[in-house]
Amino acid sequence: MATLSSYTYPFSPTFNRRQAQNQGPIVGRAYNNTDGVDKRRGGIIDIEKLKEREAKERKEEVNRKIASQKAISIILRREATKAIIEKKGGPNNSKKLLPRTVLEALHDRITAFRWESALKVFELLREQLWYKPNSGIYVKLIVMLGKCKQPEKAHELFQDMVAEGCVVNHESYTALLSAYSRSGLFDKAFFVLEKMKNTHGCQPDVHTYSILIKSCLQVFAFDKVQALLSDMVTQGIRPNTITYNTLIDAYGKAKKFAEMELTLVQMLGEKNCEPDVWTMNSTLRAFGGSGQIETMEKCYDKFQGAGIEPNIKTFNILLDSYGKAGSFVKMSAVMEYMQKYHYSWTIVTYNVVIDAFGRAGDLRQMEYLFRLMRSERIKPSCVTLCSLVRAYGREGKPEKIGGVLRFIENSDVTLDTVFFNCLVDAYGRMECFAEMKGVLEMMEQKGCKPDKLTYRTMIKAYLASGMKSHAKELKHLVGSVEEAIPVMKKPDF
């Protein structure tokens, strides 16, 4: 085997121009040489070639300077373009911005789901002299607006796309259908589906149906799902692995185990539709989350026997299931396995084990894991803080909750209504009513609105302590809070 020490460099040594200049007498002798060459170090240097090389080097040096000046010019222009984009306006030459910078700015905003800013940059893009309508950009924007629950804006863009003469294909219609279905506008989504069926070259495919099925499952519209599955059969479209995984996951979360198992059997009966790690994780989550630990373990063995390898999500699900069941021995075994085979802990792993020890009242172990999490530079989330607050509330440790709040003041964790509801519940359990009422002020400062659960939790705490007048004051607020659209809660893992 060849080694680095025995490797022969394939190119000749670089000619050192400065060294050649210092060897004046040698070059001088070369002019007097009848052969017109200098034979030194076993090399042959032709004088004409030497001149050519020096001329080439001078030219390259000039080119480098020109390239450097151009690079600086481009950088300055790009910075100016970014400044114009950020101001959403600009001077008269704002129609001659650099294409790459504008497109990068648009991509960044789409990726970050900053839909308002993305639309303003898109308006700027359409004003450029070099702009040409592109259906791909429209589709990306429509998909983003759908995910941001802006279906009407998505429809406006779809109409603009048609007006600009872009090719409207199956992908464009699917993006619009997704935007409607994500916001629960199923009448409009189904209308788009029917239009696709009757438009040449825009027929829906398994991806289109899978998107619509998933949205229906999010709001437990199982009747619509069955209608869509039947429609797929009529259209000659076979479900794929993603379709089946979506169904298995939804049935499992809804605790419809018979339907989940039937779907799994149907999946196994399909050709070219093999279960994967997502199938395994959804099945394990369903049984483990409902406390059916033995069934979960049997399924795990069967999936492994079928050659499906677990991933970090699999272990998070096992840890969560064992933790909620109080099986700390098995939970420790999973943790040891992860360490042995070098599965790095994620924020979800930490959240699961912190919550498990918090539920068990083992505050010492919980706090140790929280410190370890921070020492590994993993930023705690709202889920982490909720687990801490719940545990301290159960154990009657208001001073510890104060420590959590001080940690929040010195961090950039974005709080949500769920966290504040946990805080209200914890203070209510400990009969710290002044602090509980103060949570409402904290919510207002953070721009977070109380929901029905916030007030109901406070009412429950007041009634438990016989404070009926306080509870009565809050009852009228429950009816004034808008009811949120019921959605299937996405698990932390």
Automatic annotation (TrEMBL):
Entry's Gene3D superfamilies? Tetratricopeptide repeat domain
Which keywords does UniProt give here? Coiled coil, Repeat
Q: Which residues form a coiled coil?
A: 45-72
What are the start and end residues of each PPR repeat?
134-168, 169-199, 205-239, 240-275, 276-310, 346-380, 416-450
InterPro entries registered for this protein in UniProt: PPR_rpt, TPR-like_helical_dom_sf
Q: Which PROSITE patterns match?
A: PPR (PS51375)
Q: A Pfam family in this protein?
A: PPR_2
User: What family, per the record?
Assistant: Belongs to the PPR family. P subfamily.
Protein name as catalogued: PPR domain-containing protein/PPR_2 domain-containing protein
Q: Which organism is it from?
A: Cephalotus follicularis (Albany pitcher plant)
